[in-house]
Design brief:
This protein has a domain at about 50-105. The chain starts with 8 loop residues before the first helix and ends in a 24-residue tail after the last helix. Helices cover about 45% and strands about 0% of the residues. The protein is mainly alpha-helical. The longest helix is centred in the first third of the chain and has 22 residues, at about 20-40.
């Protein structure tokens, strides 16, 4: 199967870094294809799997600065933290996308928000 993503030429010409963005998307797709053979379908019916928690765990494996909640580590304390391994970021993104596709939050809905409702971009401290 082939999927085509479209981005306005002007955006790509003004910011060639988008090439890396699309390469990362392909890496995410590749990882999901491998996961299909390891774990099965992604239909949101994996018993006992919490995609949001799984994603947060992997984010903390990359960098623990903002994810120190002991709740996300229950049953997962032997994994290395704060490694800087960007593989964990791709896994985080995939788990967040799975939560978007098959939400477990009882009030989940997509509602486009105005910029004023966003916390904005966090500054490096």
């Amino acid at each position: 199967m082939k999927i085509t993503l479209k981005i306005p030429d002007q955006v790509y010409q003004q910011d060639p870094a988008y090439k890396r963005y699309f390469e990362a998307l392909q890496m995410m797709v590749n990882r999901m294809a491998v996961s299909h053979y390891k774990y099965g379908k992604i239909d949101g019916n994996a018993p006992g799997v919490d995609e949001l928690k799984s994603g947060l765990q992997r984010a903390a494996m990359y960098d623990t600065r903002y994810l120190k909640s002991k709740k996300i580590w229950k049953g997962c304390t032997s994994k290395p933290l704060n490694t800087g391994n960007t593989e964990n970021l791709l896994d985080t993104a995939n788990f967040m996308l799975l939560e978007y596709l098959f939400p477990k939050h009882r009030e989940a809905e997509f509602e486009a928000q105005p910029s004023s409702a966003s916390p904005g971009l966090a500054k490096v401290s």
